[in-house]
Amino acid sequence: MLPSNVYWKRFFNILRPAYIPPTRHALSTHLLDDEFNRVQTKVTDTIHTTDCISVISNGWPNIRGQGINHFMVTTLQPVFYKSIDTKDNQHKGTYIGEQLKGVVKDLGPDKVCAAVTDNAQNMKAAWAQVEEAYPHVTSIGCAAHTLNLLLKDIKELKTMHTQYKRAKVVVKYVKGKQVLSAIYHSKQ
């Protein structure tokens, strides 16, 4: 592990000889707990001081392939709210709807004005549950997801597919030439 790595210790010793880095045990116990509590307090305070928030939900498998639903909250500064391990529950609309309603309830239904998810059918079923329980909450499909799907469909059109292949050749050429690539990046 990094805290016990001889090169890591040597790095800190050269950088600042008087500094003694925390042990692996300290990092994984009280220091981690303290940082978690500090961040949780900041998130809670941010949500508490905001009048109108939206809940953003996205399900994704973790590195072991287990389903995880993530919830973010939009405030002036978006914050990560929580993740839920779906365990053996399938990503059905009823299950996701119950999770969304639970998050809305935890945050305070009077604060939540919208729920944002992708546009899949199971999400649309979840929207119906949320809107039934909380009529003032508007369910919205993710614009980026919609745009991604639209562009994917456009790319498959015969004329656009030809243009896409030509553009790929140009991009590959520019990336392969150091000067051209540098000029391109300087203009961005």
Helix and strand arrangement:
Elements lengths: L5 H10 L8 H25 L4 E9 L5 E8 L4 E7 L7 H15 L4 E6 L3 H13 L4 E4 L1 H13 L2 H19 L1 H10 L1
Parallel strand pairs: 1-4, 4-5
Antiparallel strand pairs: 1-2, 2-3
**In angstroms, what is the radius of gyration?**
23 Å
- Order of H and E elements: HHEEEHEHEHHH
What characteristic shape results from the CA principal axes?
A: flat
Strand segment count:
5
Largest β-sheet summary:
5 strands, mixed
Estimated helix fraction? 55-70%
Mean pLDDT: 89
Distance between the termini: 39 Å
Task: Give the strand order of the largest sheet, numbering strands 1, 2, ... along the chain.
Answer: 3-2-1-4-5
Overview of this structure, please?
The longest helix has 25 residues, at 24-48. The mean pLDDT is 89. Strand 4, helix 4 (121-133) and strand 5 (138-141) form a beta-alpha-beta unit. This protein is 56% helix and 18% strand. Strands 3-2-1-4-5 form a 5-stranded mixed sheet. With 188 residues, the chain is of the alpha/beta class. Helix 3 crosses helix 4 (121-133). The protein has helices spanning 6-15, 24-48, 93-107, 121-133, 143-155, 158-176, 178-187; strands spanning 53-61, 67-74, 79-85, 112-117, 138-141.
Keyword list:
single chain, 188 residues, alpha/beta, five-stranded mixed beta sheet, 7 helices, flat
Brief account:
By secondary structure, the protein is α/β, with parallel strands linked by helices. It has seven helices and five strands; from the N terminus they run ααβββαβαβααα.
